[in-house]
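S.,

As promised, the beta-D-galactopyranose run. Input:
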Amino acid sequence: MRAFYDRFAGTAYGGDYNPEQWPREAWDEDVRLMAEAGVKLVTVNVFGWGLLEPEEGCYDFGWLDEVMEHLDRHGVAVDLATGTASPPAWMAARYPDSRPVSETGVRAAFGGRAQFSPSSPVYRRAAGRLVEQLASRYSGHPALAMWHVGNEFSGVSYDEGSAQAFRSWLARRYGTVEALNEAWGTRVWAQHYTSFEHVPAPGVAPSELRNPTHRLDFTRFTSDALLDCYRAEVEILRRHTPDTPVTTNFMASYKPLDYWAWSEVGDVVSLDSYPDPADLEAVVEAAFAYDLARSLGGEPWLLMEHAVGAVSWREVNVPRPPGQMRVGSLQAVARGAAAVLAFQWRGTRHGAEKWHSSLLPHAGTATRTWREVTGVGRELASLPATALGRVEARVALVLGYDSWWACEQGNLPRQPRYLEELLEVYRVLWARDIPVDIVAPGAPLQAYDVVVLTQLYLADDTAIDTWNEFVNSGGHLVATFCTALVDETDTLRGPGYAPELADLAGLRISEIAPQREGAVLVVECPACDQTHTASTWLDVVEPAGAAVLARIVDGPHAGDPVALRRTVGFGAITYLTTKLDATGLGHLLVQVCDAAGVHVPPPTPQGVETVSRRSPSGLETVFVLNHADAVASVRLRPGGRDLLTGRPLGTELELAGHDCVAVRYPPAITDEGPRR
Ligand code: GAL
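Predicted complex:
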């Protein structure tokens, strides 16, 4: 990646560029204005397949050759997409089986994009041929900086070809049909199979309730099938251009793909992020997505797409207010991004996205948008994102895709909304500016002092061993209800509920008691001398070695424990039996951080986000981002200088709405104390 980063003075800036939608005359204006805006990197050919291969096997690279040369002449590097995200019309017409089929059995038509079934051999072969052509043609081209495989891989298909591929996947996973029967619990409703050949894709069935492990495995299979498509392209590209980095753009907080597995394949993680300007909470979700991107690939990662103003796919497409694109860009850099790219360079006049904002707006350069775009370009050029160093997190939040998939299939005592529950914990940590990494279940935890498991419904033995080891060696684990209830086959871990986790936590769960919508439990916490509320779920537990920190005050569950703590080995585990309100959760997490020796920064005004990055030489850059409309008064450590403006800063900062600073501090002389 080094050679890639070295092409850009500071943080790479740019966006999707679709010159094929414009007459040749516009291209000269494009490069002139790109220079004015500081755009140094563009993504080309995302949807170019139909133009590159207008008829099956007939290729025409003329226009792309011209684009590559034109951009190179003007010093703009290319993130060259393989174009395989959307197959051409001839494929859809000649090979209808290449188009995906919905769960209800409807085959998708041509006329949108991404109309391919992930398992279609026709699609895979044709995509491979196109990528071979592209890779050999542009290998060594001076404009080529990076390969961009497909676009936002997504989609699922229930067609017969996919069902066949699913059966092969199952045969590889289980070996024998008996093992599949065991894993899927097919004695229930006498669903047992005598041959893999009888297993269908889990389409709509007469009863709402379907075999959950069948469905879970189909989701796993689909993530793997798409990953095979990605991997196949990466292999071709690496064969031709071993030194050119490869990526594919992930989507923020996207459920259907196991990004832990996906992030192993490319060279760098890149992410698309479209926080809703109309929703103040969206900045927290964006922060979470950026922490996830950083955690998936290690620093740095690339913001591959965001919007300059409004998108065009919401019910109401509210534009970003002045300054928000700038603050949003720096929010990504603060959390580890080394590139900030937008969809798209020039606002298009045609098609489904003609109302989408762009770096070069429809209304031209005499606009406040263009002023903001060029201003951000200047700032990013002066911000050496790769040299800013690491976001140092000592707290980790565990994200399990299988848990997410399994717990939202229905059939649970109360249906969780996995990501929202995770975000509630994240939000509390975000509000206190506590840096967080996101980790996979079973991932090594030595780098952390506090680890939080939030409704991690599904856990395998490896994950459970990791938690035991973490706590015994001095870590502080926080686990909530609805964690480790089932194993990787979605079978209850037993006897008892979550037996291994309960053992570790020093308690026994005797009953699971979901709370009806709107029911509120009042909770008393003698340790913090406060009363909180709780809702949604209650594990009725009996302590077996754990100390009770908080209890329910009244009602049928009066006296039942809400929070329990057990010291184990050199560490401790805190178990939450119910969903505490944000204040209660905040108190508890801050208390755990304090006990674990994790620094909790002083509170900042609402809407203000503070993130610190530290370089190997100890230089610290603290990003202070005001997401709110109102001016915020922020206290700073003395001795800082704003990297964006160069001006020295005092200890009191009046930060305007949608404004931000990047405060640079020299290496600290203080000793932060030994790490575990
Ligand atoms: C992304 C997609 C882009 C464009 C953008 C609009 O999801 O990758 O091609 O459609 O959305 O917001």
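The two ends are 31 Å apart (CA to CA). Residues 151-152, 272, 274, 305, 311, 343, 353, 356 surround beta-D-galactopyranose (CB under 6 Å).

- D.
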